[in-house]
Amino acid sequence: MVAYSHNAMAGGRGNYVAALRFGCEPMRALVLVSLASAYGSLGTSGIVARHGGTLVLLPRFDAAAALDAIERHRPTHLFAVPTMLWRMAGCASGADVSSLKAVISSTGPVHEHVRDACVRRFGIPPVNIYGSSDGVNCRTARDPGRWAPGPAGVPDPDVAEISIRDAEGRPLPPGRAGEIWALGPMTPLCYVASPDLDARYRAPGGWVRTGDLGRLDDDGTLWVLDRIKRVINRGGVKICPAEVERVLADHPDIADVHCVPVHDRDLGERMCACLAPRPGAVPPSPAALIDCLLERGVDRRGLPERFLTLPELPLGPTGKVSVAALTRLAAEAAVPVDAAGPARRPNARM
To answer: Could you tell me which PANTHER family the record lists for this protein (predicted)?
Structure first.
């Protein structure tokens, strides 16, 4: 848990919301995530307290109910997570969504199929938000039509200054990847009763170490590459699952994907790719997915060795994929790639 000042919430977060208004009329927002989450807190502190807007809330997320709420309450803004937007776009509902001026997504990357589905259903591309409870925020609101895997937009100093640092905390030049550091009005005061977390994630001058890997381009665009700590340790070899997720998310038969580690007595951990197929699609076989990853240039050492197919990925209270639930399911029911044959078996050697 982190503690914020009033300025961080109404000031920094209010500045963030202001940049999403797209006009001078009062904001009327359908917020589909919990107001108690870091993302959802923009509703009370930013939309209501700072800008005098109106909130439209539902007791729980349901794609059809959310679309009906747009038609009934005519919100100007929709705040959701990528999985919610994807399910809403695929819902067989003829609800009128023409009141929306902006569709905002956060808590995870917006993959190309989600972006395209939003354009088809809502008539506008989603604004992708990169943020965390550590006081970092960046968004693609300046150019929501621009899309590629990874860009988080140009940082707004009224919300948070962004710096890319090496392992020793030294600033890195444009184009170099390192840890994303943040400083600004949204910077929290401290971690509550957790001096160990303060020591680990806060740096001199008020900077916060996010634990995310990124880079800044020459034009100031921030790219978020992965979580530094989200690695799978396979026999001492550190594997980052982000590239696998990006490739599989573009597969025409896959709606959602998330990679988790599964315990292995020999190597410690192996990567499991957890998949949800698109409605009406036949789930691709592990062998076909391995071929797809190899064709897209994924290093053989970074291929998943387990696969789990589910009707849909489990979500936690904030709308993010529940990694704990997914890891448990993977441990119980993941299918090894060995059935694909030795030629396709990834990481056959240490």
So the answer is: 2-SUCCINYLBENZOATE--COA LIGASE, CHLOROPLASTIC_PEROXISOMAL, ACYL-COA SYNTHETASE
| H or E segment to which residue 216 belongs | strand 208-216
Using alpha carbons, list the distances in angstroms from residue 103 to 64, 79, 108: 17, 6, 14
The 161-165 sheet, strands edge to edge: 151-153, 222-227, 208-216, 178-183, 161-165
> In this predicted model, what pLDDT tens digit does every residue of 12-49 receive, in sequence order?
889 989 989 888 889 999 999 999 888 898 999 999 99
Q: Structural domain boundaries of the chain?
A: 2-226, 232-344
- Among 264, 266, 226, 268, residue whose Cα is nearest residue 244: 226
> Looking at domain 2-226, what is its CATH homologous superfamily?
ANL, N-terminal domain (3.40.50.12780)
In the CATH hierarchy, which top-level class contains the domain 232-344? alpha beta
DSSP classification of residue 318: T
**Residue found under tokens 């100093």:** 157
pLDDT tens-digit series, residues 215-236: 999 999 999 887 766 778 887 7
- pTM for the predicted model, two decimal places: 0.77
Q: How far apart are CA 9 and CA 49, in angstroms?
A: 10
Specify whether the CB–CB gap between 306 and 272 falls below 8 A.
Answer: yes
